[in-house]
Specification:
With about 300 residues, this protein is mainly alpha-helical. It is built from 17 helices and no strands. The N and C termini lie far apart (about 50 Å). Belongs to the importin alpha family.
Length: about 300
């Protein structure tokens, strides 16, 4: 196991020699030996696509998925699976086709921070793939659990959850991104704007911007189909309403004073594009919620 870890990675000729033994030891009756073998595979797969292919060709995916149900092996198994889906789309598809997503529900309910963090990282990698792979994540029923982890007490878990939902929103099509709005995602995303992590703040802002665009598109679509008049106003955007109600607008407004120029630019752009300005230059804090509104 230790011979396979570290950077730079061992020469591939040595990896080829070690891999069959690591695979063989996965079935060893000694739990510690099997765990070390699983970690060796995680180290080998934490590298280039050709090394990921070596792990896949060794046929270890079914065993790694079985290991997800065993506490002693969980971390090494989910790390190996996560490394594989960090490869190319074809490598990711092997994991999806093997049914790994169905095993992630119990992992997201784990009391162990590391298990939830690694699982969310793996889901975010799958969600960065093809539209079909994003759809597989949605159809697996994992979204409510992922969004729940946006409210986790551990900052690193919330960070990975933010990446996961962001990849669905940004990399997915409009219907897939809209699916996020079926859950209580806006308050959680807005809360994560307060995490003292510049990258997470940018990711959360990007995600909010995409969801705000979807809300605006829904208003535009409703108006285009309403031939009898009674058009919805711009502030009928339900995502705008949700952002204001949870205090998110105030957080976005505060970010205009952030030391990061990218955060400043993005927060200013969101306010300018989606939140009305009255005659005195104040951001709008009230939206119409009566007839001029609709819900997802």
């Amino acid at each position: 196991s230790n011979l396979c870890r570290g950077k730079p990675s061992p020469y591939i000729c040595y990896v080829r020699q070690a891999l069959p033994m690591a695979v063989h030891l996965l079935a060893h009756p000694d739990e510690e030996v099997a765990t070390d073998a699983a970690w060796a595979l995680s180290y080998i797969s934490d590298s280039t696509e050709d090394r990921i292919n070596m792990v896949l060709d060794a046929g270890v995916v079914p065993t790694m998925i079985q290991f997800l149900a065993h506490p002693a092996y969980q971390i090494a198994a989910i790390r190996t699976i996560g490394n594989i889906v960090a490869g190319n789309d074809l490598q990711t598809q092997v994991i999806v086709d093997a049914g790994a997503l169905a095993n992630f529900h119990q992992l997201l309910g784990s009391p162990k921070r590391s298990v939830r963090k690694e699982t969310l990282w793996t889901i975010s990698n799958i969600a960065a793939g093809t539209l079909a792979q994003i759809q597989a994540v949605i159809e697996s029923g994992l979204l409510p659990l992922v969004i729940q982890q946006l409210n986790a007490t551990e900052a690193d878990v919330r960070k990975e959850a933010t990446w996961a939902v962001s990849n669905i929103a940004i990399s997915g099509d409009s219907q897939q991104a809209q699916h996020l709005l079926n859950f209580d995602i806006i308050p959680a995303l807005c809360e994560n704007l307060s995490l003292h992590d510049t990258k997470v703040t940018i990711v959360a802002l990007d995600t909010l911007e995409k969801l705000l665009q979807i809300g605006r598109h829904q208003v535009d679509m409703a108006n285009s189909l309403n031939e009898g008049g009674g058009f919805l106003p711009e502030d009928a955007n339900p995502v705008v309403k949700l952002v204001i109600e949870c205090g998110g607008l105030a957080k976005i407004d505060d970010l205009q004073g952030h030391r990061s120029d990218e955060i400043y630019q993005l927060s200013a752009q969101i306010i300018d594009e989606f939140f009305s300005i009255d005659e005195e230059g104040e951001t709008l804090e009230n939206v119409h919620t009566a007839s001029g509104s609709f819900q997802f």
